[in-house]
Each structure stands twice: as C-alpha cells, then as structure tokens.
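Components:
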Amino acid sequence: MSVVEAPPTQLETTERSPGRSLGSFLRDSEIDTRMVGMIAVLVVIWIGFHIISGGTFLTPRNLWNLSVQTSTVGIMATGMVLVIVSRNIDLSVGSMVGVVGMVMALLQAEILPDIVGRGTAWMWIVVLAIGLVLGGLIGAFQGVMIGYVGVPSFIVTLGGLLVWRGFAWLTASGRTIAPMDSTFQLLGGGSRGSLGEAGSWIVGGVACLGIIAFLMSGRRRRRKFGFRLRPMWLDATLGVLGCGFVLTAVWVTNSYYLPENLARAVAEERGIPWPEGGLLIPLGIPYPVLILIAVTLVMAFVANRLRFGRYIFSIGGNPDAANLAGINTRRTIVKTFMVMGILAAISAAVSIARLNAAVSGLGTLSELYVIAAAVIGGTSLSGGIGTVSGAVLGALVMQSLQSGMVLVGVDAPLQDVVVGIVLVTAVAIDTIYRRRTAHR
Amino acid sequence: MTGSTNNPATDQVPLVEMRNMSVSFGGVHAVNDVSIYLQPSEILGVVGGNGAGKSTLIKTLSGAQKADSGQIYVNGEPVTINTPRDAKALGIETIYQTLALADNIDAPGNMFLGRELLTRTKTLDDSAMEDATRRIMGRLNPKFQNFKSPVSSLSGGQRQSVAIARAVHFNARILIMDEPTAALGPAETEQVRELIRQLKREGIGIILISHDIHDVFDLSDRISVMLQGKLVGTVSRGEATMDEILAMIIIGKLPGEVTRSELAELHG
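Structure:
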C-alpha cells in the first residue's frame, strides 16, 4: 500500500520526543488510518443492526449469507478501483456480467451437452475459461477504444452498457437458461458449494502463516537496508489481530450447519443413519468467498507490487508525467480494462452458479453498486487514489447495510434512500479528511 | 541565417548537435530551421520570450515532440528520438518546468518511474528504490527526509530535488532543464544553481531554458536566442552584454547590428 496511502515516516529527531501524539505514532507505524476508520464504521453497523434486529444479525447464518452476497460486487470492485485510479470509469460491468453470464450458461446448458454429453466432469472449467476470455476480450476492446482511439471511457462504457445488455438478450432471445452444470454450480456457494470444516481450518491456518510470513519479510527487507523498523510489539499485535480475525471468520463459517432436510440428504448419500439429535454438518468457507479472497489478494498484489499497478497509479496522478517517464500509457489503459472484463466474467460465473440460471437482466445496475463500493472504500474519482482492500471493505459495508435493512424490515424504497445517503456521506467525510491531512 | 558562432568547434565532436530542426503546428512554424550544439561540461542557455519556440525545440531532443524535419547527432552519430524512452537511452534527461511528478506517488516511486527496480521475482523492489533515493538525496539535498509521503505533500524545493535526482541518477550525459528556478525561492534557487555548476564539473552537458536572461546569463557558457521560432543567434560568454542579448530576445538583432538608440529604447 506504499503507493498512495502509506502515511509518512518522519525521521526528524524533533518528532521523536517521548510525549508525541497518537497521530504521529500512527504515521510512524504506517498503519492506514482510513482503513481503521472503515473497519470501525463496519463494526458500528454490525452491532447496530444486531441490536435493532433483536440479535439476528451477528449469527453464523446471516454472516455466512452476507459474505456470499458481498462476493459478486466485491470481485468487480477490486478492478473498478484500478479503473477509477487511472482516471477512467467502467459503466459497462453490469452488462458484461449479463452477456458473459448468458454465454457461459448457454455453453453448459445447451451447447456443450450436445457435443460432449451432460455431466462431463471437465465441462465447468471449459465454460469458465471461455467466459474469462470473452470478458477479457470485451474489456480489451473497450480499452482500445479508450486508450488508442481516445474516446472518453464514460462514453465507451456507456455505449458498452447498452450494447452488451442488448447482446445478453439477443444471444438467448431473452430466455432464461437453466440449469447449470452440477460442478459449475459449486462456484455460487449454496449448500454444497463450501469448503467444509477441515478444509476451512486448513485455509485459515495457511492464511495465518501467510500473515506472519508477510510481516516477517517486511522486517527483513527493512533491516537489510538499515531502515528504521516498526516496534516489534506492534508487528506482533498486528499478527495476532490478523490471525485472530482469520480464525474467528473460519469459526463463524464452521458454525453454520446444513439445514436439516439437506443434512438428511447427505446422510442418505453417505449411508449414515440419521442420529437422534440431528446431524450437524458445518458448511465452512463458501467458494464464492474463497474466490473473492483470492481475487482480492491477486489484485492487491498487482496494484502494489507490480510495475503495471505502479503505472496505473502514475497515470492517475499525472498522465503527462507517466508519458514523459516513458510509460506506455495506452497499453496500460487497455490492460486495466481487460482486467476489469475478466473480473466481470468471474463475477458472472458466481452469479449464474448461485442462481443456477442465467437471465438477460443479470447484473443490471450492478455497475452502480461496484462504483459505489470502490468510492465508499476510499477511491477518489479524480484518479490516483484508492486501494483494493478498501474497495472490498466498501462492498462489505454496502451489503451489510442492505442485508441489515432487509433483516430489520425496512421498505425497499427506503433502503435505496439510505444507501444513497451513505454513499454521499462517506465521500463527504473522506473529502474533508483528505483536505485536512493534505496540508500537514 | 544562423550566426557564425553556431558552428561546432572543429577540434571536438559535440555531445549533441541539432541541425536544421523544424516543427510546425497546423501551419504555424513553432520551430523554423534551428541548429544548436552542446559540448561536454558546457552550459548552453536557450532564451526567448513566450512562444519563441525554445520549449518545442528542446522537446524534440527529449522525445516529447516529434520534429517535422532536421537531424539530431549524439557524439557525432545520427540518432532518431521518437519517445522519451529513446532520449533516456541516449543519456538525455529532462527536468520539465512542471517537474512531471506523479503527485500521488512517493519520492522513490517518482525517481524510478518507468525504470523501476525489480526483485528476482519481477516485483517492485521498494526498499532498494528507497535506499537508492536516500543515497542520492544525501548528496543533492541532505535535508530531504520524506521518503514515504506522496510528493504532493512536499515543498516546491523538495519536489525540484526529486525531479533533479531522477535526472542525474541514471548517468545523464545531457541534461535539459526547462525554467529550473522559476518556482523557487532565493535560497532554493541558489542551491539549484550550485548543483548545476557541480554537474558541469562532472562533465555533463547542460541546456538551460529560460524566458528570463537574468536566470541564465552568468551560468551559461554560450547563449542561444530564439524569436518567433527562429534562431536569432548564439553568443559566447563575454561576447555580448546582457543588454545586447535582451535586444536579440526582443527585436531579434545580433550585437553587431543593433543601434545605440534601439538599446536605449529597451530600457524605455
């Protein structure tokens, strides 16, 4: 995250007096205060809904569903951050979901079964691969129009919003395409699309090791060059907090059990006699959430550790400077939109798998939720500023609000009012915060 | 057309030579058949009023603008410069008036923009870049300590330091500076001037562009004056007074051609 938001490390000795403020401590520790603030907001929302709903919000079942519902928007938000950071916008993601979802559905429900037979084990991966390629091609095509032809991204993707939605209808003449391949369905979560108890604990354990390795490699790199190290106790605290969060999340997903009728079916399948007290089969981490986590890690890596990501940020900060530095800005823009297209395809796969069907209206309006998630997550529409993790957190905040309001029984029109107000308020607070911290 | 002093000295191959450069924008001759050259350890001032064409001329050398005609030679070899990358590969570094910094990125990120240091796994080596930036800043501007904030939070002088550090770090042989002190206070200006002298001693050829003759008069070994896209002439230090160069800038006459009354008129 060093690109945009790492607070400065001030080494001046005057700052190092014993009675220094919390602010300068946070700056030294390179903790992202905006991210901490967002997590605090999320905690407030969760606890608030938990109290108002009479204790039904913070339950394994609700949190499990919340995480699955966040994944489709979250996956796309990780790419929208980069698009917006590069001073562009992509209004076509919802329609891309529609057309790519429809093509993938047609492939597995109508085209491929005639060729290779229904239920072929590897069909899902072929369908997914074709979908990703199609998404990438659509994104790259829009990127070429923007980067090389020079049509503003707002116009290109506004056109794309209409064109791809039209194609989503045309490819199947508006029919609903179902059912999906049984393996493909697992991508959507659902009762079978989860890792299960043991698998979830293994993933959690690996994640913990990853957090520790990340913190240690950071210390090693800084020591190698003789830079000042973060205090050991702080790194240790971050490690404990990170691992604690991961293991708690795994525990929550493992505390949500298969509903009784499905558990009975599983028991029958495996030939287990139905026990007296019922059978508790933990679901564990749902696959769509696993996909979201993987996408987030990959995209954060791309944004912060690869030249490609650095170039996107430099274009957003100063396009002329990027050009004069010898960066191929046009190609970078094409690649950015291509990544966005691929992410829309992943999101489409999760959506049709979850629905077990594709409709021509799939993904309608999701471009607005994706953009809102990125913006709530601290992405600046003027470009140059934003983080992948912030966007995912933004998606989670929005989904929490919507799920919470449904749970509490708020009317649908009022839900939109609240989400709209939250969007504007979040950006207002962020703008004021930025203005204050800019002139330190 | 070009003054007699504009021909390269016969005993030395120039570091860079631009011959008969022309650039036009839709019928307007921004640069019209201009020839200049630069020797190692030499400071060439390029002066002229707004719209004289000095920035456009120099952009053809830094790769930011394609020339319509003309030929550039580096160390006597003809070269083609189409992009900033081409220029950098030839050891030509440019510090633009706007500094060309990405405001949202920190100093090391800007210093290595487009030329990032990578680890063995092809990821950005931020620590190595910070280390290199600390080293070069230790030499150029020891007071500079802010290696982690976006450069938008730095002062004008600090931003200038980053731009200069970027230019000299990559072993520039030819350094182009467009209005290098225009945005600086007196102390920072003196700092930059001292740095220019230091780089000259290290054998780097420097082209200073300015609209103000006072900025470059005592630094430059030679001064080329442009007016309305054309080269009025090039004079060596000591060949012309500041007033005479002012006359070249404003009325386009060489020191020998200008009359006493015209000189007097310049002072109103």
